[in-house]
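Technical annex B. To support the medicinal chemistry partners, we prepared a structural model of the target in complex with nickel (II) ion, based solely on the information shown next.
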Amino acid sequence: MAILKIARMGHPVLLARAEAVADPTAPEIRRLVRDMIETMEDASGAGLAAPQVHVPLRLFVVRVNPERASGDAADTAVLPNAVVINPEVELLGDDVRLRWEGCLSIPGLRAAVPRSWRIRYKGVDTDGKPVGGEVTGFHAGVVQHEYDHLDGIMYPMRMQDFSLFGFNEELARVAAQQAARP
Ligand code: NI
């Protein structure tokens, strides 16, 4: 197990299209997935894509903690450390909502990014078994964000309103002030 170095925005690996994983069950892929999960947990992230750890392959890990789920019935309440290899994502319907996102490759910042509320995705895990399904809310947003990394897309490239972009500390301060108002 190892904590991997995370590429930050500006590194070219984050702008490249990643290659399909030839053998999802290969020992080196299992090792990579284990290390990515450890790295994601260490950095308190909800997802991590292989290009973010300098590996240009089409796979990502995600986790949905109960406090982050939207409450919508199709938003998985808990998804512990799932891996999705060679994913495909299909956006369902016209419901696009702004979703606050951060990225381990853009530390300290977050932004409101338009994302489809409902998606269907599929891929395989390190046993070659199918994973995915039809999901909404936070789960759907995380998958769209991580999938974008495999195509070299960073969340600022999806933004429409740059006034909804800021440092976590400043945004938290504003939120606390608003919450304290009578
Ligand atoms: Ni990211």
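Notes passed to the chemistry partners:
The chain has one domain: 12-180.
The first strand starts at residue 47 and ends at 49.
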